[in-house]
Design goal:
The protein has seven helices and six strands. The chain has about 160 residues and is an alpha/beta fold. It has one domain: 3-Layer(aba) Sandwich (Uracil-DNA Glycosylase, subunit E), CATH 3.40.470.10. The protein has a four-stranded parallel β-sheet. A two-stranded antiparallel ribbon has the order 3-4. The relative contact order is 0.18.
Length: about 160
C-alpha cells in the first residue's frame, strides 16, 4: 500500500489516486524496482483536494493536521480491508499520519518502523518532490534514490 498526502488536480478530476505526473513517475519507478503494479494499492491520507486558484490552475495546498486526522478513519478502513504486507508513506504528511510526528522523511526514509498496521511500514519521498527538483541532475539523483528506496522495500518483502 502506497499512501500519499492528498489527491492532486489530475487525481481529483479522475477520481483515482496517482494518475497525474507524480503517479506516472511512481509507476515507472515501481517497475524499475521490480514491484508489479498489480500488487500495489494506491491511496492518500487526505481524501479531498485542498487547493487555491492561481489563474486557471488549481494549486495544491498542504492539508493541516485537523484535516489529516479527520480523514484517518478512511485510511484505517482501507488498511483493514487491504491487509497490506507493506505500507509506504510517500512524503511528510503521510509519514506523520502513519508513523507519528517524530518521523522526518529526509532522515528516516527507507527505515522500517515498528507498527501493527503491516509487516513493513516505511517512508520515502513523495514522487512530486522529484518533479520539483531544481534541475535535471537533481531530478536524476532524486529519482535514483527513490528507486533505491523501492528496491529496499521489494527486498524486505521477499
Amino acid at each position: 500500500m502506497f499512501v500519499g498526502e492528498q489527491p492532486g488536480d489530475a487525481e481529483d478530476l479522475a477520481g483515482k489516486p496517482f494518475v497525474g505526473p507524480a503517479g506516472q513517475l511512481l509507476r515507472a519507478a515501481l517497475a524499475e524496482a521490480g514491484i508489479p503494479i498489480s500488487a500495489v494499492y494506491f491511496t492518500n491520507v487526505v481524501k479531498h483536494f485542498k487547493w487555491e486558484p492561481r489563474g486557471r490552475r488549481r494549486i495544491h495546498k498542504r492539508p493541516n493536521h485537523a484535516e489529516t486526522m479527520a480523514c484517518r478513519v478512511w485510511l484505517d478502513a482501507e488498511v483493514e480491508y487491504v491487509k497490506p504486507d507493506a505500507i509506504v508513506a510517500l512524503g511528510a504528511t503521510a509519514a506523520t499520519a502513519i508513523v507519528g510526528p517524530s518521523v522526518k522523511v529526509s532522515r528516516d526514509r527507507g527505515r522500517a518502523f515498528p507498527s501493527s498496521l503491516a509487516r513493513l511500514v516505511t517512508a520515502t519521498v513523495h514522487p512530486s518532490s522529484i518533479l520539483r527538483a531544481p534541475d535535471s541532475d537533481a531530478r536524476a539523483k532524486a529519482r535514483a534514490d527513490f528507486v533505491a528506496d523501492l528496491k529496499f522495500i521489494a527486498a524486505r518483502l521477499k
